[in-house]
């Protein structure tokens, strides 16, 4: 492969100064590099200026990892990498967590480059220690592997450390880039050929560009040979080269007008010598400025040449990752913009993305687009693959339809921006991957809130396209009642804006059946003024369950709209049926709160009570992400009233022990103010949304089906029954007819069928 | 009745949970906005649900401007002292002198060993900490040119270059409870940093202060060379309560002033990750405690010069 373009995405960057004499220099130069649109900043830990300094050696240099973390904190976009970070004094299990931590803090921008330490005199020993350390890092990052990490090496002993976290992105581990004897360099290359994702080419001191190209070609040939011997594809390993500003004509006075020759030389390194990452070292700010100009020209030149040659741009995954791939997916065709963030079954980050809140999944590929254009790319790609497609925002959906087995998941979690568009009209724009707890926290400083659900970990996209029955529902209606406009990617890849004035038919459909019609990439909501609120957790002895439910229903219906309550029951314990009621009163006045709660407190004996005045974000805080195995079983029904008949059946259900979790949510109040045909959410007459989770589908279905006459409809987000007749419960009569018309027009091939497709004939769900 | 006369510091003790990193960074920024002096982070490198504390401190340093940062307390067995010394000095330089070093000997030895650290007995842990403090101070001391040679049983150093030197005299604050650790604190540390929750009573606090004072005297040091810091848990509530730090801000002010004037504590670091508490602590409680303590101290306020508090040379 030497002498060829390896097709790696081109990265142009700068190595940062780490002299303790000017400690601010690294951050200054990194910020400048980011402004200038460079891709990468690098902190070197190698004593490659002749051994005089080096962070481990101390002296005049700053410690590399600390500098890198500070640089990551001072920048937003640019990737941050180390070169030759030495392992002395850094226990590798701790380093693994440090790398993963920074990757999470910095939003997936970290590339660690390691080198052997200098402990001991034997370079072979140091290399052995490095090999063990790499195993430790990879083992710690492999969150999906069962059991704790045990590695008893000669140099590093890890005796059962809990694994994880995985880094935030599919990060590449680089080796190389330190000076040493020819033997040591060859040893490091052999190790890299076995375990690395990237290789820093030796720091050459070339006599002119031609000599440099020859030296690079020689080293590339040696690495390629080592890779081939190790059974790997040379394209699996990226190659980086450090260019000294002084000796390349990019520094000093020449830098003012970098010639075409420099562009030619650098483009040749990429196009003819397989280097994908070019980093300028020893640069001051003027040199950086002129390098940015050169970088732009190199980028254009490389892009043009690659287009002309038909070079496929991307990084080839390792053989182990390729072996774990699912059939039916053309992994080599993943669009370039999505390659870096895509997660495959063999990737370390797979465990974190494969399952959802209540459903275990094993998708063959998780695509994680970062903007609308990438969603369009991802959708076009996914449509060309003959496997199931699921769309995921927060991954919390009860039915868990945002994962699958062997298919593609389009995960929108990277699109999580929350911005205020207009303070006067309280208009905000929110991307689908944000979670509601984050939304609450972002709106709180303005004195605002947007009703969502009862749980901060729920994603915006799934909830806002289905309904949104939360602690402000009786006062402010459904979440989707606050939607004023949205941007939607349709099945054919077109991007449309929907609102009352633009594509009004789609605007109607997105509010209640969004998952059937397209992928919403941004929501514009009008939010409400909400200050501190009263939040009560009351536990009742509801052993007289029928009477309790009837009284509870009547009390809630009679309560002013500023009061919303959700009730949870489980199987009887010690003969007692306990009812846990969470009630929120939109008031910070203790007397009002008590006045609103008093009628509830009189329903039955109170076993526990807690009432607090809290900021709204405290009610929907973001919990730790949680995923499950297996398959959820829930049934949902919308009811107008808790009639004695419904209460009797519900009481029997609770006492039967068939449901570990039975919830009745308030779903009326302001929801009633919107006509049933105004949105695709049609259950406008209901006062209650009722859900029963089951441990056995057969058992819960038998009970629930017998209760069907109590219900007028089903809430999409809480239903898991795959039988086709559920569709008419989710979208009753005229709503379904209108949705089918939209389906025919906007998604005729039923691309978006993963969650109760409205297409005719009804697709079998899961 | 002890008052070492240090200026008062107020801070936050932040759980570095990795589930929502932006919230952790946000609490540090909120601490700064609330006017607190310190943002500190627990360090449990064996805990998979935590961010790496040193990495987090470095990242936060770039996202704050004024507040002082410290690990509370750094886990020595998994943070070898030579790299720790250079990391602390580097961050102190990068942040313009805003770093202090909370340091502990380690407690959860099963977890430490599982991560690749060396299992020590509590007594060995004390000796290892003493060695480490010597190593750290030697590497920071660039007033001499000679390389550092420190033979040792736990953290030997052979021919290491000195430097970088931190931007300001970084204090080493030791987390200590047992007699041997308290003696080490009195003999070698710039600060004592326990958690109130691990002390059974205020009498414990006084006893420990006395041990530190004795050890300091024995080593020929002024006890005021050791700042007494304290991690405190508590809640704000509308009603006064008989408990410590579980009432309205006025009650906090009274009780913190007593801790300062009668029990020698000059830094209060609030646990619990409660944004409201941190805001009230910085904006209401801290100024009121400072005022009250200054009034009580009368003309003697601020007696201890900064040089006595930090940068003690071993």
In short:
Chain A is α/β, with parallel strands linked by helices.
Q: Which properties best describe this structure?
A:
A: alpha/beta, ten-stranded parallel β-sheet, elongated, B: alpha/beta, disordered C terminus
Helix-strand blueprint:
The complex is a heterodimer of chains A (766) and B (314).
Chain A: E1 11-15, H1 25-35, E2 40-44, H2 64-74, E3 79-83, E4 85-86, H3 92-105, E5 110-111, E6 113-115, H4 123-141, E7 149-152, E8 157-161, E9 174-176, H5 182-195, E10 198-200, H6 209-229, E11 238-244, H7 260-271, E12 277-281, H8 285-309, H9 319-323, H10 336-339, H11 350-354, E13 365-367, H12 372-383, E14 389-392, E15 408-411, E16 418-422, E17 427-430, H13 436-443, E18 448-449, H14 460-466, H15 473-476, E19 483-489, E20 495-499, H16 504-517, E21 519-526, E22 528-529, E23 532-541, H17 545-558, E24 563-569, E25 578-585, H18 590-601, E26 606-615, H19 616-619, E27 634-639, H20 644-656, E28 661-666, E29 688-693, H21 697-706, H22 726-730, H23 733-746
Parallel strand pairs in A: 1-2, 1-12, 2-3, 3-5, 4-6, 6-9, 9-10, 10-11, 11-12, 13-15, 14-15
Antiparallel strand pairs in A: 7-8, 16-17, 17-21, 18-22, 19-20, 19-21, 23-25, 23-26, 24-25, 24-28, 27-29, 28-29
Helix pairs in contact in A: 1-2, 3-4, 4-5, 5-6, 7-8, 14-16, 16-23, 17-20
Chain B: E1 9-14, H1 21-33, E2 38-41, H2 53-62, E3 68-71, E4 74-75, H3 81-94, E5 101-104, H4 109-114, H5 122-140, E6 148-150, E7 157-160, E8 172-174, H6 179-188, E9 191-192, H7 202-218, E10 227-232, E11 235-236, E12 246-247, H8 249-263, E13 267-270, H9 275-297, H10 306-309
Parallel strand pairs in B: 1-2, 1-13, 2-3, 4-5, 5-8, 8-9, 9-10, 10-13, 11-12
Antiparallel strand pairs in B: 6-7
């Amino acid at each position: 492969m030497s002498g060829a373009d390896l097709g790696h995405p081109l990265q142009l960057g700068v190595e940062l100064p780490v002299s303790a004499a000017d400690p601010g220099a690294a951050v200054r130069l990194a910020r400048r590099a980011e402004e200038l649109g460079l891709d990468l900043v690098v902190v070197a830990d190698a004593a490659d200026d002749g051994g005089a300094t080096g962070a481990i050696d101390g002296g005049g240099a700053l410690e590399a990892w600390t500098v890198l973390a500070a640089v990551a904190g001072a920048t937003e976009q640019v990737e941050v990498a180390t070169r030759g970070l030495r392992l002395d004094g850094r226990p590798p299990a701790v380093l693994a967590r440090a790398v993963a931590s920074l990757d999470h803090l910095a939003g997936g921008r970290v590339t660690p480059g390691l080198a052997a330490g200098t402990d001991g005199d034997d370079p072979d020993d140091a290399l052995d220690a490095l090999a063990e350390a790499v195993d430790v890092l990879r083992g710690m990052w492999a969150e999906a592997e069962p059991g704790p990490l045990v590695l008893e090496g000669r140099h590093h002993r890890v005796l059962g450390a809990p694994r994880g976290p995985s880094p935030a992105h599919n990060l590449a581990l680089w080796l190389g880039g330190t000076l040493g004897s020819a033997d040591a360099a060859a040893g490091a290359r052999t190790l890299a050929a076995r375990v690395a994702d990237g290789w820093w080419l030796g720091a050459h001191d070339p006599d002119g560009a031609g000599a440099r190209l020859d030296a690079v070609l020689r080293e590339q040939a040696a690495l390629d040979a080592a890779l081939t011997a190790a059974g790997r594809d040379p394209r699996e390993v990226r190659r980086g080269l450090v260019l000294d500003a002084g000796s390349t004509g990019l520094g000093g006075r020449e830098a003012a007008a970098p010639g075409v020759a420099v562009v030619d030389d650098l483009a040749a390194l990429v196009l003819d010598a397989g280097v994908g990452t070019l980093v300028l070292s020893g640069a001051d700010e003027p040199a950086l400025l002129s390098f940015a100009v050169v970088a732009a020209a190199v980028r254009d030149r490389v892009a043009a040449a690659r287009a002309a040659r038909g070079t496929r741009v991307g990084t080839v995954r390792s053989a182990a990752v390729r072996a774990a791939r699912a059939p039916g997916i053309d992994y080599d065709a993943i669009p370039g913009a999505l390659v870096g963030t895509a997660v495959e079954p063999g990737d370390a980050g797979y465990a974190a993305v494969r399952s959802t809140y209540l459903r275990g999944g094993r998708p063959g590929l998780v695509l994680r687009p970062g903007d609308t254009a990438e969603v369009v790319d991802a959708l076009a790609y996914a449509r060309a693959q003959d496997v199931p497609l699921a769309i995921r925002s927060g991954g919390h959906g009860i039915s868990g339809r945002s994962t699958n087995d062997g298919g593609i998941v389009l995960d929108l979690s990277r699109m999580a921006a929350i911005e205020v568009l207009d303070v006067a009209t309280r208009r905000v724009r929110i991307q689908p991957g944000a979670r509601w707890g984050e939304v609450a926290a972002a709106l709180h400083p303005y004195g605002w809130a947007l009703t969502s659900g009862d749980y901060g970990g729920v994603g915006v996209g799934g909830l806002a396209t289905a309904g949104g029955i939360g602690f402000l529902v009786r006062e402010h209606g459904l979440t989707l009642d606050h939607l004023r406009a949205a941007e939607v990617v349709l099945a054919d890849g077109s991007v449309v804006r929907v609102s009352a004035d633009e594509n009004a038919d789609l605007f109607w459909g997105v509010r209640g059946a969004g998952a059937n019609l397209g992928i919403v990439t941004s929501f514009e909501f009008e939010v409400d003024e909400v200050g501190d609120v009263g939040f009560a957790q009351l536990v009742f002895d509801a052993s007289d369950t029928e009477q309790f439910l009837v009284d509870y229903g009547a009390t809630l219906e009679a309560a002013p709209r500023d009061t919303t309550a959700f009730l949870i029951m489980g199987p009887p314990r010690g003969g007692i049926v306990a009812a846990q009621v969470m009630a929120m009163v939109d008031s910070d006045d203790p007397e009002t709160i008590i006045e609103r709660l008093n009628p509830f407190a009189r329903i039955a004996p109170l076993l526990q009570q807690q009432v607090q005045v809290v900021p709204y974000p405290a009610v929907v805080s973001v919990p730790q992400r949680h995923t499950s195995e297996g398959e959820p079983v829930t049934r949902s029904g919308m009811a107008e009233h808790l009639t004695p008949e419904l209460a009797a059946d519900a009481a029997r259900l609770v006492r039967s022990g068939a449901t570990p979790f039975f919830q009745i949510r308030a779903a009326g109040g302001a929801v009633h103010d919107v006509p049933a045909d105004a949105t695709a959410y049609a259950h406008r007459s209901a006062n209650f949304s009722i859900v029963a989770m089951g441990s056995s589908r057969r058992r819960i279905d038998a009970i629930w089906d017998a209760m069907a006459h109590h219900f007028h409809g089903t809430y999409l987000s809480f239903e898991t029954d795959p039988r086709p007749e559920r569709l008419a419960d989710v979208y009753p009569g005229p709503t379904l007819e209108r949705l089918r018309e939209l389906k025919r027009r906007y998604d005729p091939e039923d691309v978006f069928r993963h969650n109760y497709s409205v297409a005719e004939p009804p697709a079998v769900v899961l | 009745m002890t008052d070492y006369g240090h200026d008062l510091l107020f801070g936050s003790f932040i759980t570095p949970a990795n589930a929502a990193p932006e919230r952790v960074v946000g609490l540090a920024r909120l601490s700064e906005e609330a006017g607190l002096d310190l943002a500190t982070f627990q360090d449990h490198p064996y805990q998979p649900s935590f961010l790496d504390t040193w990495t987090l401190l470095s990242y936060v340093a770039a996202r704050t401007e004024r507040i002082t940062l410290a690990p509370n307390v750094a886990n020595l067995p998994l943070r070898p002292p030579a790299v720790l010394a250079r990391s602390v000095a580097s961050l102190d330089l990068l942040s313009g002198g805003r770093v202090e070093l909370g340091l502990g000997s380690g407690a959860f030895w099963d977890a430490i060993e599982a991560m690749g650290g060396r299992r020590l007995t509590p007594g060995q842990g004390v000796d290892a900490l003493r060695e480490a403090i010597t190593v750290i101070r030697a590497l920071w001391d660039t007033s001499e040119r000679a390389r550092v040679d420190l033979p040792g049983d736990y953290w030997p150093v052979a021919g290491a270059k000195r430097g970088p030197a931190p931007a300001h005299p970084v204090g080493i604050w030791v987390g200590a409870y047992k007699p041997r650790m308290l003696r080490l604190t009195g003999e070698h540390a710039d600060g004592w940093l326990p958690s109130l929750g691990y002390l059974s009573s205020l009498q414990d606090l006084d006893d420990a202060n006395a041990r530190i004072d004795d050890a300091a005297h024995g080593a020929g040091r002024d006890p005021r060379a050791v700042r007494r810091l304290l991690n405190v848990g508590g809640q704000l509530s509308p009603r006064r309560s008989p408990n410590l730090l579980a009432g309205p801000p006025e009650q906090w002010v009274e009780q913190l002033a007593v801790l300062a004037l009668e029990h020698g504590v000059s830094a209060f670091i609030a646990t619990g990750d409660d944004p409201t508490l941190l805001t009230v602590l910085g904006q209401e409680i801290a100024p009121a405690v400072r005022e009250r303590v200054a009034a009580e101290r009368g003309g003697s306020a601020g007696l201890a010069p900064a040089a006595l508090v930090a940068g003690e040379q071993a």
